[in-house]
Amino acid sequence: MKSFSKSKIHQSVVVLLSLTLLSAGCSNSANSNNESASTAPSGETPAAEFSYPITGGPELTFMNEQLGGTPEHMPIDDEYEKRTGITIKHLGGTPMTDQKFSLLLASGELPDIFLNTWLQYPGGPDKAVEQGYILKLNDLIDQYAPNLKKSLQEHPEIDKMIKTDDGTYYAFPFIRSEAGRVYGGPIIRKDWLDELKLDIPETIDEWHTVLTAFKEKNNADAPATFRTMFLGERTGGFAGAFGVMGNFYINDGKVVYGYLEPGYKEYLKTMNQWYKEGLIDKDFASIDAATVDKKMTSKVSGATIGWQFYIEKYNSAAQETDPDANFVAAPYPGAAKGQLPEFGQLDNAYAGTSSAAISSTTKNVEAAMRWLDYAYSKEGSMLNTFGVGGTTYTLENDKPVYTDLVVKNPEGLGSDQVMMKYSHGTNFPMIQQDNNLPAKYPQTTKAIDIWKKTNHESHLLPPVTPTADEADEMSSIMNDINSLVKEAELKIILGTESVDNYDEYVQQMKDMGIERVLEIQQAAYERYMKR
Protein backbone atom coordinates (compact mmCIF):
# COMPACT_ATOMS: atom_id res chain seq x y z
CA MET A 1 0.00 0.00 0.00
CA LYS A 2 1.45 3.32 -1.04
CA SER A 3 2.04 6.08 1.52
CA PHE A 4 2.23 9.75 0.62
CA SER A 5 4.83 12.19 1.92
CA LYS A 6 4.04 15.78 2.85
CA SER A 7 5.33 16.99 -0.47
CA LYS A 8 2.54 15.10 -2.19
CA ILE A 9 -0.27 16.39 -0.02
CA HIS A 10 -2.88 18.52 -1.68
CA GLN A 11 -2.15 21.61 0.36
CA SER A 12 -5.42 23.41 -0.26
CA VAL A 13 -7.58 20.77 1.35
CA VAL A 14 -7.22 21.04 5.11
CA VAL A 15 -9.75 19.30 7.25
CA LEU A 16 -10.34 20.88 10.64
CA LEU A 17 -10.42 18.32 13.36
CA SER A 18 -13.49 19.32 15.35
CA LEU A 19 -14.12 16.05 17.10
CA THR A 20 -15.31 15.21 20.54
CA LEU A 21 -12.63 12.58 20.88
CA LEU A 22 -13.04 9.85 23.36
CA SER A 23 -10.23 8.89 25.71
CA ALA A 24 -9.99 5.41 27.12
CA GLY A 25 -10.52 4.83 30.80
CA CYS A 26 -11.18 1.38 32.16
CA SER A 27 -13.54 0.27 34.88
CA ASN A 28 -15.08 -2.94 36.07
CA SER A 29 -18.30 -4.10 37.65
CA ALA A 30 -19.20 -7.08 39.77
CA ASN A 31 -22.91 -6.91 38.92
CA SER A 32 -24.64 -9.88 37.34
CA ASN A 33 -25.60 -9.82 33.64
CA ASN A 34 -29.30 -9.83 34.47
CA GLU A 35 -29.32 -6.61 36.48
CA SER A 36 -31.18 -3.67 34.90
CA ALA A 37 -29.91 -0.11 34.86
CA SER A 38 -31.75 3.11 34.12
CA THR A 39 -28.62 5.19 33.65
CA ALA A 40 -25.35 4.79 31.80
CA PRO A 41 -23.20 1.91 33.12
CA SER A 42 -21.03 3.07 35.98
CA GLY A 43 -18.68 0.62 37.67
CA GLU A 44 -16.67 1.83 40.66
CA THR A 45 -13.96 -0.83 40.79
CA PRO A 46 -10.98 -0.13 38.51
CA ALA A 47 -10.39 -2.85 35.93
CA ALA A 48 -7.03 -4.32 35.12
CA GLU A 49 -5.01 -2.23 32.70
CA PHE A 50 -5.83 -3.03 29.10
CA SER A 51 -4.24 -1.93 25.86
CA TYR A 52 -4.63 -2.91 22.23
CA PRO A 53 -3.84 -5.20 20.48
CA ILE A 54 -5.49 -8.00 22.43
CA THR A 55 -3.33 -11.07 22.94
CA GLY A 56 -3.98 -14.53 21.55
CA GLY A 57 -5.18 -13.46 18.10
CA PRO A 58 -8.89 -14.35 18.53
CA GLU A 59 -11.14 -14.70 15.48
CA LEU A 60 -14.77 -13.54 15.45
CA THR A 61 -17.55 -13.94 12.91
CA PHE A 62 -19.47 -10.87 11.80
CA MET A 63 -22.73 -10.44 9.89
CA ASN A 64 -24.11 -7.12 8.61
CA GLU A 65 -27.61 -6.05 7.62
CA GLN A 66 -27.05 -5.61 3.88
CA LEU A 67 -28.43 -8.54 1.90
CA GLY A 68 -25.71 -10.19 -0.15
CA GLY A 69 -22.60 -12.31 -0.12
CA THR A 70 -19.36 -11.84 1.71
CA PRO A 71 -18.17 -8.24 1.29
CA GLU A 72 -14.81 -7.45 -0.29
CA HIS A 73 -11.91 -7.37 2.17
CA MET A 74 -10.76 -3.76 2.43
CA PRO A 75 -7.64 -2.03 3.79
CA ILE A 76 -9.74 -0.81 6.73
CA ASP A 77 -10.23 -4.46 7.73
CA ASP A 78 -6.47 -5.06 7.76
CA GLU A 79 -5.90 -1.93 9.83
CA TYR A 80 -8.57 -2.89 12.36
CA GLU A 81 -7.04 -6.35 12.73
CA LYS A 82 -3.55 -4.91 13.20
CA ARG A 83 -4.68 -2.41 15.84
CA THR A 84 -7.07 -4.61 17.83
CA GLY A 85 -5.34 -7.98 17.42
CA ILE A 86 -8.73 -9.47 16.46
CA THR A 87 -9.48 -11.14 13.14
CA ILE A 88 -12.98 -10.66 11.76
CA LYS A 89 -14.50 -13.22 9.40
CA HIS A 90 -17.30 -11.60 7.40
CA LEU A 91 -20.29 -13.85 6.72
CA GLY A 92 -22.26 -11.58 4.39
CA GLY A 93 -25.53 -9.96 5.34
CA THR A 94 -29.15 -10.61 6.21
CA PRO A 95 -31.54 -7.73 7.00
CA MET A 96 -33.89 -8.11 9.95
CA THR A 97 -36.92 -8.02 7.64
CA ASP A 98 -35.70 -10.88 5.42
CA GLN A 99 -37.01 -14.39 6.01
CA LYS A 100 -33.43 -15.63 6.03
CA PHE A 101 -32.92 -13.84 9.33
CA SER A 102 -35.56 -15.98 11.02
CA LEU A 103 -34.00 -19.11 9.53
CA LEU A 104 -30.61 -18.02 10.83
CA LEU A 105 -31.96 -17.69 14.37
CA ALA A 106 -33.68 -21.06 14.14
CA SER A 107 -30.46 -22.73 12.98
CA GLY A 108 -28.60 -21.79 16.14
CA GLU A 109 -25.49 -21.10 14.07
CA LEU A 110 -25.18 -17.46 14.97
CA PRO A 111 -22.37 -15.03 14.18
CA ASP A 112 -20.43 -13.61 17.09
CA ILE A 113 -21.47 -10.07 16.14
CA PHE A 114 -24.80 -9.12 14.53
CA LEU A 115 -24.91 -5.75 12.75
CA ASN A 116 -28.58 -4.95 12.24
CA THR A 117 -31.55 -2.76 13.13
CA TRP A 118 -32.54 -4.27 16.46
CA LEU A 119 -35.41 -1.83 16.94
CA GLN A 120 -37.14 -3.84 14.18
CA TYR A 121 -36.76 -7.18 15.94
CA PRO A 122 -40.21 -8.83 16.39
CA GLY A 123 -41.05 -8.01 19.98
CA GLY A 124 -38.29 -5.39 20.15
CA PRO A 125 -34.69 -5.66 21.39
CA ASP A 126 -35.87 -6.67 24.89
CA LYS A 127 -37.41 -9.75 23.27
CA ALA A 128 -34.18 -10.62 21.46
CA VAL A 129 -32.40 -10.56 24.84
CA GLU A 130 -35.21 -12.43 26.60
CA GLN A 131 -35.22 -15.17 23.96
CA GLY A 132 -31.50 -15.66 24.40
CA TYR A 133 -30.30 -14.61 20.94
CA ILE A 134 -28.26 -11.58 21.99
CA LEU A 135 -26.56 -10.50 25.21
CA LYS A 136 -27.63 -7.77 27.56
CA LEU A 137 -24.62 -5.46 27.60
CA ASN A 138 -24.99 -3.40 30.78
CA ASP A 139 -22.37 -5.13 32.91
CA LEU A 140 -20.25 -6.07 29.93
CA ILE A 141 -19.91 -2.39 29.09
CA ASP A 142 -18.63 -1.80 32.60
CA GLN A 143 -16.09 -4.57 32.19
CA TYR A 144 -14.91 -4.34 28.62
CA ALA A 145 -16.12 -1.14 26.91
CA PRO A 146 -14.58 1.89 28.67
CA ASN A 147 -14.75 4.05 25.55
CA LEU A 148 -18.46 3.52 24.91
CA LYS A 149 -19.12 3.90 28.64
CA LYS A 150 -17.30 7.22 28.78
CA SER A 151 -19.15 8.56 25.75
CA LEU A 152 -22.52 7.64 27.25
CA GLN A 153 -21.64 9.41 30.48
CA GLU A 154 -20.56 12.50 28.55
CA HIS A 155 -23.54 12.45 26.16
CA PRO A 156 -26.78 11.68 28.04
CA GLU A 157 -28.79 12.46 24.90
CA ILE A 158 -27.13 9.45 23.24
CA ASP A 159 -27.52 7.30 26.33
CA LYS A 160 -31.26 8.02 26.31
CA MET A 161 -31.62 6.85 22.73
CA ILE A 162 -29.76 3.55 22.78
CA LYS A 163 -31.43 1.72 25.67
CA THR A 164 -34.88 0.35 26.25
CA ASP A 165 -37.34 1.78 28.77
CA ASP A 166 -36.09 -0.54 31.52
CA GLY A 167 -32.49 0.53 30.93
CA THR A 168 -31.26 -2.43 28.87
CA TYR A 169 -28.31 -1.80 26.55
CA TYR A 170 -28.54 -4.29 23.70
CA ALA A 171 -26.14 -3.08 20.99
CA PHE A 172 -23.19 -0.86 20.18
CA PRO A 173 -24.90 2.00 18.30
CA PHE A 174 -24.25 3.84 15.08
CA ILE A 175 -24.78 7.49 16.01
CA ARG A 176 -24.98 9.97 13.15
CA SER A 177 -23.27 13.32 13.42
CA GLU A 178 -25.52 16.36 13.34
CA ALA A 179 -24.47 17.06 9.74
CA GLY A 180 -24.99 13.41 8.81
CA ARG A 181 -28.66 13.26 9.77
CA VAL A 182 -29.72 14.76 6.44
CA TYR A 183 -28.24 13.09 3.37
CA GLY A 184 -30.88 12.96 0.64
CA GLY A 185 -33.42 14.92 -1.34
CA PRO A 186 -34.51 16.09 -4.82
CA ILE A 187 -31.83 16.25 -7.53
CA ILE A 188 -32.36 18.08 -10.81
CA ARG A 189 -30.49 18.98 -14.02
CA LYS A 190 -29.68 22.65 -13.66
CA ASP A 191 -28.32 22.84 -17.22
CA TRP A 192 -31.76 21.88 -18.55
CA LEU A 193 -33.38 24.54 -16.39
CA ASP A 194 -30.94 27.13 -17.73
CA GLU A 195 -31.68 26.15 -21.33
CA LEU A 196 -35.40 26.51 -20.64
CA LYS A 197 -34.92 29.73 -18.66
CA LEU A 198 -36.57 28.18 -15.62
CA ASP A 199 -35.65 28.53 -11.96
CA ILE A 200 -35.08 25.63 -9.60
CA PRO A 201 -38.60 24.60 -8.53
CA GLU A 202 -39.67 25.32 -4.94
CA THR A 203 -43.37 24.39 -4.99
CA ILE A 204 -45.47 21.52 -6.35
CA ASP A 205 -46.85 23.79 -9.10
CA GLU A 206 -43.34 24.83 -10.13
CA TRP A 207 -42.26 21.19 -10.21
CA HIS A 208 -45.19 20.44 -12.52
CA THR A 209 -44.13 23.27 -14.84
CA VAL A 210 -40.51 22.10 -14.88
CA LEU A 211 -41.24 18.42 -15.49
CA THR A 212 -43.70 19.30 -18.25
CA ALA A 213 -41.00 21.38 -19.93
CA PHE A 214 -38.49 18.53 -19.58
CA LYS A 215 -40.94 16.25 -21.37
CA GLU A 216 -42.17 18.59 -24.10
CA LYS A 217 -39.04 20.63 -24.85
CA ASN A 218 -36.15 18.38 -23.82
CA ASN A 219 -37.84 15.20 -25.03
CA ALA A 220 -37.21 13.47 -21.70
CA ASP A 221 -38.89 10.08 -21.80
CA ALA A 222 -39.14 10.00 -17.99
CA PRO A 223 -38.81 13.59 -16.68
CA ALA A 224 -38.71 12.35 -13.06
CA THR A 225 -37.51 8.90 -12.13
CA PHE A 226 -37.21 7.28 -8.73
CA ARG A 227 -37.74 4.01 -6.94
CA THR A 228 -40.80 3.16 -4.86
CA MET A 229 -38.74 3.50 -1.67
CA PHE A 230 -38.74 7.25 -2.27
CA LEU A 231 -42.51 7.65 -2.44
CA GLY A 232 -43.52 8.94 0.95
CA GLU A 233 -42.03 6.72 3.63
CA ARG A 234 -38.23 6.71 3.27
CA THR A 235 -38.21 10.45 2.78
CA GLY A 236 -40.98 13.01 2.73
CA GLY A 237 -40.44 13.17 -1.02
CA PHE A 238 -43.03 15.40 -2.60
CA ALA A 239 -45.51 14.44 0.14
CA GLY A 240 -44.05 17.05 2.50
CA ALA A 241 -45.63 19.79 0.41
CA PHE A 242 -48.99 18.36 1.44
CA GLY A 243 -48.07 18.40 5.13
CA VAL A 244 -47.68 14.63 5.43
CA MET A 245 -45.30 11.74 5.01
CA GLY A 246 -45.70 7.99 5.25
CA ASN A 247 -45.23 6.06 8.48
CA PHE A 248 -45.31 7.43 12.04
CA TYR A 249 -44.41 10.93 13.16
CA ILE A 250 -45.25 13.53 15.81
CA ASN A 251 -47.75 16.38 15.56
CA ASP A 252 -47.94 18.56 18.69
CA GLY A 253 -46.96 15.72 21.00
CA LYS A 254 -49.25 13.13 19.40
CA VAL A 255 -48.12 10.16 17.31
CA VAL A 256 -49.64 10.28 13.84
CA TYR A 257 -49.73 7.70 11.03
CA GLY A 258 -49.33 9.71 7.86
CA TYR A 259 -51.26 7.36 5.61
CA LEU A 260 -54.44 8.15 7.55
CA GLU A 261 -54.17 11.89 6.97
CA PRO A 262 -56.27 13.71 4.30
CA GLY A 263 -53.12 15.30 2.91
CA TYR A 264 -51.80 11.90 1.86
CA LYS A 265 -54.80 11.38 -0.38
CA GLU A 266 -54.13 14.75 -2.02
CA TYR A 267 -50.48 13.80 -2.50
CA LEU A 268 -51.45 10.52 -4.21
CA LYS A 269 -53.95 12.37 -6.39
CA THR A 270 -51.18 14.68 -7.60
CA MET A 271 -48.74 11.83 -8.23
CA ASN A 272 -51.42 9.99 -10.22
CA GLN A 273 -51.99 13.08 -12.34
CA TRP A 274 -48.26 13.44 -13.00
CA TYR A 275 -48.07 9.76 -13.94
CA LYS A 276 -50.95 10.14 -16.41
CA GLU A 277 -49.19 13.10 -17.97
CA GLY A 278 -45.97 11.11 -18.41
CA LEU A 279 -44.02 13.22 -15.92
CA ILE A 280 -43.11 10.22 -13.72
CA ASP A 281 -41.15 7.26 -15.02
CA LYS A 282 -43.66 4.66 -16.15
CA ASP A 283 -41.35 1.95 -14.75
CA PHE A 284 -40.79 3.50 -11.31
CA ALA A 285 -42.55 0.65 -9.51
CA SER A 286 -40.01 -1.93 -10.68
CA ILE A 287 -36.70 -0.26 -11.51
CA ASP A 288 -33.55 -0.58 -9.44
CA ALA A 289 -30.92 1.98 -8.47
CA ALA A 290 -28.63 1.15 -11.41
CA THR A 291 -31.43 1.81 -13.89
CA VAL A 292 -32.24 5.13 -12.24
CA ASP A 293 -28.55 6.08 -12.49
CA LYS A 294 -28.49 5.21 -16.19
CA LYS A 295 -31.60 7.23 -16.95
CA MET A 296 -30.33 10.24 -15.04
CA THR A 297 -27.00 10.29 -16.88
CA SER A 298 -28.28 9.57 -20.40
CA LYS A 299 -30.82 12.39 -20.89
CA VAL A 300 -33.80 10.10 -20.30
CA SER A 301 -34.59 11.77 -16.98
CA GLY A 302 -33.91 15.17 -15.48
CA ALA A 303 -34.93 14.76 -11.84
CA THR A 304 -34.90 12.19 -9.07
CA ILE A 305 -34.78 11.83 -5.31
CA GLY A 306 -31.55 10.40 -3.99
CA TRP A 307 -28.58 10.66 -1.67
CA GLN A 308 -25.93 13.35 -1.63
CA PHE A 309 -23.22 11.28 -3.30
CA TYR A 310 -25.54 10.73 -6.30
CA ILE A 311 -24.83 14.33 -7.32
CA GLU A 312 -21.10 13.62 -7.46
CA LYS A 313 -21.70 10.36 -9.31
CA TYR A 314 -24.12 11.81 -11.87
CA ASN A 315 -21.98 14.83 -12.71
CA SER A 316 -18.88 12.70 -13.10
CA ALA A 317 -20.59 10.17 -15.38
CA ALA A 318 -22.64 12.59 -17.50
CA GLN A 319 -19.85 15.10 -18.11
CA GLU A 320 -17.75 12.47 -19.86
CA THR A 321 -20.03 12.84 -22.90
CA ASP A 322 -21.84 16.08 -22.06
CA PRO A 323 -19.53 18.66 -20.46
CA ASP A 324 -22.46 21.00 -19.77
CA ALA A 325 -24.36 18.49 -17.63
CA ASN A 326 -24.98 19.95 -14.20
CA PHE A 327 -26.83 18.07 -11.46
CA VAL A 328 -27.71 20.06 -8.34
CA ALA A 329 -29.82 19.66 -5.23
CA ALA A 330 -33.31 21.16 -5.27
CA PRO A 331 -35.20 22.02 -2.08
CA TYR A 332 -38.02 19.83 -0.89
CA PRO A 333 -41.13 21.49 -2.34
CA GLY A 334 -43.39 23.58 -0.15
CA ALA A 335 -47.12 24.11 -0.50
CA ALA A 336 -46.57 27.76 -1.45
CA LYS A 337 -43.67 29.99 -2.44
CA GLY A 338 -41.50 30.77 0.57
CA GLN A 339 -43.26 28.20 2.76
CA LEU A 340 -41.14 25.43 4.27
CA PRO A 341 -42.34 21.88 3.67
CA GLU A 342 -43.25 20.00 6.82
CA PHE A 343 -41.15 16.99 5.84
CA GLY A 344 -38.00 16.10 3.95
CA GLN A 345 -35.41 13.48 4.88
CA LEU A 346 -34.12 13.46 8.43
CA ASP A 347 -32.85 10.64 10.61
CA ASN A 348 -32.60 10.52 14.35
CA ALA A 349 -29.00 10.62 15.48
CA TYR A 350 -29.73 7.03 16.50
CA ALA A 351 -32.13 5.45 14.01
CA GLY A 352 -31.31 1.91 15.12
CA THR A 353 -29.54 0.99 11.90
CA SER A 354 -26.07 -0.57 11.77
CA SER A 355 -26.00 -1.36 15.47
CA ALA A 356 -23.97 -4.34 16.66
CA ALA A 357 -25.33 -6.89 19.10
CA ILE A 358 -23.30 -9.78 20.45
CA SER A 359 -24.81 -13.21 20.13
CA SER A 360 -25.39 -15.34 23.20
CA THR A 361 -23.35 -18.16 21.62
CA THR A 362 -20.20 -16.05 21.36
CA LYS A 363 -17.31 -17.92 22.99
CA ASN A 364 -15.06 -14.89 23.39
CA VAL A 365 -17.30 -12.13 24.69
CA GLU A 366 -14.39 -9.95 25.76
CA ALA A 367 -12.87 -9.98 22.26
CA ALA A 368 -16.22 -9.01 20.74
CA MET A 369 -16.66 -6.18 23.23
CA ARG A 370 -13.10 -4.92 22.79
CA TRP A 371 -13.33 -4.98 18.99
CA LEU A 372 -16.54 -2.96 19.01
CA ASP A 373 -15.38 -0.59 21.74
CA TYR A 374 -12.31 0.42 19.73
CA ALA A 375 -14.50 2.56 17.43
CA TYR A 376 -15.41 4.82 20.37
CA SER A 377 -11.78 5.49 21.35
CA LYS A 378 -9.75 8.50 20.18
CA GLU A 379 -7.66 6.35 17.84
CA GLY A 380 -10.65 4.41 16.53
CA SER A 381 -12.59 7.60 15.90
CA MET A 382 -9.68 9.02 13.90
CA LEU A 383 -9.40 5.82 11.87
CA ASN A 384 -13.11 5.62 11.12
CA THR A 385 -13.27 9.30 10.22
CA PHE A 386 -10.04 10.06 8.33
CA GLY A 387 -8.70 6.63 7.46
CA VAL A 388 -5.14 5.41 7.81
CA GLY A 389 -2.52 7.94 8.84
CA GLY A 390 0.22 8.31 6.22
CA THR A 391 -2.04 6.83 3.55
CA THR A 392 -5.25 8.86 3.40
CA TYR A 393 -4.09 11.76 5.58
CA THR A 394 -1.16 13.23 7.46
CA LEU A 395 -1.18 15.59 10.42
CA GLU A 396 -0.06 19.19 9.97
CA ASN A 397 -0.20 21.34 13.08
CA ASP A 398 -2.21 18.52 14.67
CA LYS A 399 -4.85 18.77 11.93
CA PRO A 400 -5.50 16.01 9.37
CA VAL A 401 -4.82 16.87 5.75
CA TYR A 402 -6.00 14.50 3.02
CA THR A 403 -3.38 13.07 0.68
CA ASP A 404 -3.52 12.91 -3.10
CA LEU A 405 -4.78 9.34 -2.79
CA VAL A 406 -8.05 10.93 -1.65
CA VAL A 407 -7.99 14.33 -3.33
CA LYS A 408 -6.41 13.46 -6.70
CA ASN A 409 -6.87 9.72 -6.85
CA PRO A 410 -4.63 8.24 -9.57
CA GLU A 411 -7.40 5.80 -10.57
CA GLY A 412 -9.96 8.58 -10.89
CA LEU A 413 -11.96 7.46 -7.85
CA GLY A 414 -14.04 9.98 -5.96
CA SER A 415 -12.96 10.84 -2.43
CA ASP A 416 -15.96 8.99 -1.00
CA GLN A 417 -15.04 5.87 -2.97
CA VAL A 418 -11.49 5.96 -1.62
CA MET A 419 -12.60 6.47 1.96
CA MET A 420 -15.02 3.55 1.75
CA LYS A 421 -11.90 1.38 1.49
CA TYR A 422 -9.86 3.01 4.25
CA SER A 423 -12.42 4.10 6.85
CA HIS A 424 -15.91 3.51 8.24
CA GLY A 425 -17.50 6.86 7.45
CA THR A 426 -21.04 5.60 7.96
CA ASN A 427 -23.18 2.54 8.77
CA PHE A 428 -20.81 1.13 11.38
CA PRO A 429 -21.17 0.96 15.18
CA MET A 430 -19.50 4.23 16.18
CA ILE A 431 -20.18 7.88 16.92
CA GLN A 432 -19.87 9.47 13.50
CA GLN A 433 -17.61 12.49 13.17
CA ASP A 434 -17.70 14.97 10.29
CA ASN A 435 -14.82 14.19 7.94
CA ASN A 436 -15.22 17.28 5.72
CA LEU A 437 -14.42 15.06 2.78
CA PRO A 438 -13.41 17.04 -0.32
CA ALA A 439 -15.84 16.81 -3.22
CA LYS A 440 -15.02 17.23 -6.88
CA TYR A 441 -18.13 19.31 -7.47
CA PRO A 442 -19.30 22.22 -5.27
CA GLN A 443 -22.86 21.14 -6.07
CA THR A 444 -22.28 18.13 -3.83
CA THR A 445 -21.22 20.09 -0.77
CA LYS A 446 -24.09 22.57 -1.10
CA ALA A 447 -26.77 19.87 -1.17
CA ILE A 448 -27.19 19.24 2.55
CA ASP A 449 -27.90 22.87 3.44
CA ILE A 450 -30.54 22.95 0.70
CA TRP A 451 -32.25 19.75 1.87
CA LYS A 452 -32.21 20.79 5.52
CA LYS A 453 -34.78 23.52 4.95
CA THR A 454 -37.87 21.75 6.25
CA ASN A 455 -39.86 21.54 9.49
CA HIS A 456 -39.10 17.83 9.79
CA GLU A 457 -37.29 18.11 13.14
CA SER A 458 -40.50 19.06 14.95
CA HIS A 459 -42.20 15.90 13.68
CA LEU A 460 -39.46 13.34 14.22
CA LEU A 461 -40.48 10.31 16.26
CA PRO A 462 -37.55 9.33 18.52
CA PRO A 463 -36.29 5.71 18.74
CA VAL A 464 -39.01 4.48 21.06
CA THR A 465 -39.07 0.90 22.38
CA PRO A 466 -42.49 -0.62 22.98
CA THR A 467 -42.51 -3.44 25.53
CA ALA A 468 -42.05 -6.97 24.19
CA ASP A 469 -45.81 -7.64 24.41
CA GLU A 470 -46.64 -4.29 22.80
CA ALA A 471 -44.11 -4.87 20.03
CA ASP A 472 -45.52 -8.34 19.32
CA GLU A 473 -49.05 -6.96 19.10
CA MET A 474 -47.98 -4.04 16.94
CA SER A 475 -45.97 -6.26 14.60
CA SER A 476 -48.89 -8.62 13.98
CA ILE A 477 -51.08 -5.66 13.03
CA MET A 478 -48.53 -3.69 11.01
CA ASN A 479 -47.43 -6.60 8.80
CA ASP A 480 -50.79 -6.51 7.01
CA ILE A 481 -51.17 -2.73 7.12
CA ASN A 482 -47.73 -2.20 5.57
CA SER A 483 -48.69 -4.43 2.67
CA LEU A 484 -52.02 -2.66 2.30
CA VAL A 485 -50.59 0.88 2.10
CA LYS A 486 -47.93 -0.11 -0.44
CA GLU A 487 -50.63 -1.74 -2.56
CA ALA A 488 -52.86 1.32 -2.27
CA GLU A 489 -50.05 3.74 -3.19
CA LEU A 490 -49.08 1.87 -6.32
CA LYS A 491 -52.61 1.21 -7.54
CA ILE A 492 -53.63 4.83 -7.15
CA ILE A 493 -50.48 6.34 -8.68
CA LEU A 494 -50.55 3.87 -11.59
CA GLY A 495 -54.25 4.61 -12.09
CA THR A 496 -55.50 1.05 -11.71
CA GLU A 497 -57.69 2.29 -8.88
CA SER A 498 -59.38 5.63 -8.35
CA VAL A 499 -57.96 7.97 -5.73
CA ASP A 500 -61.54 8.29 -4.46
CA ASN A 501 -61.17 4.76 -3.10
CA TYR A 502 -58.40 5.83 -0.73
CA ASP A 503 -60.98 6.56 1.96
CA GLU A 504 -61.87 2.86 1.87
CA TYR A 505 -58.21 1.98 2.44
CA VAL A 506 -58.16 4.30 5.44
CA GLN A 507 -61.19 2.51 6.86
CA GLN A 508 -59.51 -0.85 6.22
CA MET A 509 -56.49 0.28 8.22
CA LYS A 510 -58.77 1.22 11.10
CA ASP A 511 -60.56 -2.13 10.89
CA MET A 512 -57.16 -3.88 10.93
CA GLY A 513 -56.16 -2.15 14.19
CA ILE A 514 -54.13 0.95 13.29
CA GLU A 515 -55.73 2.90 16.11
CA ARG A 516 -54.47 0.31 18.61
CA VAL A 517 -50.99 0.67 17.11
CA LEU A 518 -51.20 4.43 17.60
CA GLU A 519 -52.07 3.86 21.26
CA ILE A 520 -48.98 1.65 21.66
CA GLN A 521 -46.74 4.14 19.89
CA GLN A 522 -48.10 7.02 21.95
CA ALA A 523 -47.46 5.15 25.21
CA ALA A 524 -43.93 4.27 24.10
CA TYR A 525 -43.30 7.88 23.09
CA GLU A 526 -44.45 9.20 26.45
CA ARG A 527 -42.23 6.68 28.28
CA TYR A 528 -39.30 7.68 26.11
CA MET A 529 -39.78 11.35 26.94
CA LYS A 530 -39.61 10.48 30.66
CA ARG A 531 -36.31 8.55 30.43
Automatic annotation (TrEMBL):
<feature type="region of interest" description="Disordered">
    <location>
        <begin position="30"/>
        <end position="50"/>
    </location>
</feature>
<feature type="compositionally biased region" description="Low complexity">
    <location>
        <begin position="30"/>
        <end position="42"/>
    </location>
</feature>
<dbReference type="InterPro" id="IPR050490">
    <property type="entry name" value="Bact_solute-bd_prot1"/>
</dbReference>
<keyword id="KW-0732">Signal</keyword>
<feature type="signal peptide">
    <location>
        <begin position="1"/>
        <end position="32"/>
    </location>
</feature>
<dbReference type="InterPro" id="IPR006059">
    <property type="entry name" value="SBP"/>
</dbReference>
<protein>
    <submittedName>
        <fullName>ABC transporter substrate-binding protein</fullName>
    </submittedName>
</protein>
<keyword id="KW-1003">Cell membrane</keyword>
<keyword id="KW-0449">Lipoprotein</keyword>
<keyword id="KW-0472">Membrane</keyword>
<keyword id="KW-0564">Palmitate</keyword>
<dbReference type="Pfam" id="PF01547">
    <property type="entry name" value="SBP_bac_1"/>
</dbReference>
